[in-house]
Design goal:
Layout: H1 27-37, H2 43-49, H3 54-67, H4 87-108, H5 110-120, H6 127-130, H7 133-146, H8 151-159, H9 162-167, H10 181-191, H11 200-209, E1 235-237, E2 240-242, H12 246-256, H13 258-273, H14 280-296, H15 301-309, H16 312-315, H17 327-338, H18 344-356, H19 379-398, H20 403-413, H21 419-430, H22 438-449, H23 454-458, H24 469-480
Antiparallel strand pairs: 1-2
Helix pairs in contact: 3-5, 4-5, 4-7, 4-18, 5-7, 7-8, 10-11, 13-14, 14-15, 18-19, 20-21, 20-24, 21-22, 22-24
């Protein structure tokens, strides 16, 4: 199977998108918004959104995400090790509980859920390295809290988060034994990008400014600053020599390298929300102006995101269907668009399958995170995607909920009894692009028809009330999820 994301270059600008006869406001564009800003939407939501203007819909979705309360702390969220009755049993139980909570948040919280996972793949930690439920929660809370906030504040708070201090050795970084691990990733992965206007000496000096966060009241408690282990001597970073505290270092970084930081993070967000491909023109005409918007807002993220999401560039048809879905995109978007039933048992299975096909929640492959897009797909993960989706459909059959297959067909096709109409309505709703040829639709329609004699269709006798209709729709949906187009958003 070949998944082709190649499109002519998107030359549209950041000017606000204004619907026109050549580029109309449509359900297709609304699905594009919901798939990129969140994890899809059902037909009723899409139809309702069609009544809004593009700019108003973007404002609504962004403001709604901003207003969502962070997930409340679980009873164990601020435990120290001594608070557990049976650490080995309870810690694993709490980890599994929070995996479910994260999955349920992600599928329901729209842009907040999508950005929370984005930042978890930017400010990376690996659960398998620290394996401690309270730190898992505190890290997630930090990602949620800052997902749509101020990037400078976010960078500051990440560096003194207990989970990060353990993961990247900040807890071991003292004036007696400096550890440069976090300082390196602060520059290379979190703010500037690799080899982007900093030196090895800058890393070493920054590491000295990051010393001092080496104390807790007991194992597993919050890590806090201890002045006795902080290096109080002057440090020279970016050619400036000062007695740098942690706060001074973050201020210096954003004052001396604001353009590099803004460009780096805007490019990464562009690739996440619009297209993995960035050429020289996009760098100049899209990334550059977005970076300036971020700087002008003192690194508040929302103005830059709203400018991007409202632009004709984002709404250009050449931006549609050019990103390969992540494992959670495949699973969660389908759940929201189909309105199919799921519960915690199924969510646990989705998280399990996500790990099998390349996206193990809280455990990216290394500190650089998942590289996304084409790296999601290989011969093993592709068949795993099919199996994960088949599990969902088989579970619904097992629970005698297969009527929902017919419900979605009836809703999308206006209760048609024409298999060609039903097939096109269903396939086009769940895919970002139309199928490559009419023959592809014919094959899908033939699968929907199953073993029912053709004359029943010709005479208009067959309809979605037939006893065989749920199984026929099952066959069509299983066929659809194997289509190359289904892997794109």
């Amino acid at each position: 199977m070949e998944i082709n994301t190649n499109q002519p270059c998107n030359t549209s600008t950041l000017a606000p998108y204004v619907p026109s006869s050549s580029n109309p406001w449509s359900t297709k564009k609304i699905k594009h918004i919901y798939r990129r800003l969140g994890y899809g939407a059902n037909l009723a939501t899409i139809d309702s959104a069609l009544l809004q203007t593009p700019g108003a819909l973007i404002d609504f979705l962004v403001d709604e995400a901003t207003a969502v309360d962070v997930t409340p702390a679980p009873p164990w969220g601020n435990f120290a090790v001594s608070d557990f009755n049976d650490f080995n049993t309870q810690n694993q139980q709490f980890i599994e509980e929070w995996l479910l909570q994260t999955g349920n948040d992600t599928v329901t919280q729209g842009l907040r859920g999508r950005l929370t996972l984005f930042w978890m793949n930017h400010f990376v930690t690996e659960l398998e390295q620290y394996s401690y439920a309270p730190y898992m929660y505190r890290y997630y809370n930090l990602m949620q809290t800052n997902a749509l906030g101020n990037f400078k504040t976010f960078v500051h708070d990440v560096g003194i988060n207990s989970t990060m201090l353990v993961y990247l050795n900040g807890f071991e970084n003292t004036k007696f034994n400096p550890n440069e691990n976090y300082a390196r990733e602060l520059f290379e992965l979190f703010t500037l990008g690799a080899d982007n206007n900093y030196t090895q000496q800058d890393i070493l000096e920054a590491a000295r400014a990051l010393t001092g966060y080496n104390n807790w009241d007991e194992p597993g408690a919050q890590i806090y600053f201890d002045a006795s282990t902080w290096d109080e001597d002057p440090k020279t970073v970016f050619g400036q020599t000062n007695v740098l505290t942690y706060e001074d270092l973050i201020n210096t970084l954003f004052e001396q390298r604001e353009s590099e930081i803004a460009n780096f993070i805007c490019k990464k967000l562009y690739q996440f929300f619009v297209s993995h491909e960035v050429d020289v023109l996009i760098e100049q005409n899209i990334i550059g102006p977005l970076s300036q918007t971020l700087i002008d807002s003192n690194f508040d993220i929302l103005p830059m995101l709203k400018r991007l999401f409202k632009s004709e560039h984002f709404f250009d048809s050449r931006a549609e269907g050019v990103i390969i879905k992540s494992p959670f995109d495949i699973l969660f978007t389908y759940l929201n668009e189909s309105d199919f039933y799921y519960d915690d048992t199924m969510m646990g299975a989705f998280i399990y399958f996500g790990g099998l096909i390349g996206q193990e929640l809280y455990d990216p492959p290394d500190v650089s995170g998942w590289q996304r897009d084409e790296t999601w797909i290989n011969s093993s993960t592709l068949t795993g995607r099919w199996q994960a989706m088949e599990f969902l459909h088989n579970y619904l059959f097992q629970e005698e909920l297969q009527g929902s297959f017919v419900d979605i067909a009836r809703e999308l096709s206006n209760d048609s009894n024409d298999p060609e109409v039903i097939t096109k309505a269903v396939v086009d709703f769940f895919n970002a692009k139309e199928l490559f040829t009419e023959a592809d639709y014919d094959i899908a329609s033939t699968i929907l028809k199953w073993e029912v004699p053709q004359n029943y269709y010709d005479d208009g006798i067959w309809n979605l009330n037939w006893d065989s209709a749920p199984y026929q729709m099952y066959l069509l949906l299983i066929h659809m999820i194997r289509m190359p187009e289904f892997q794109l958003k």
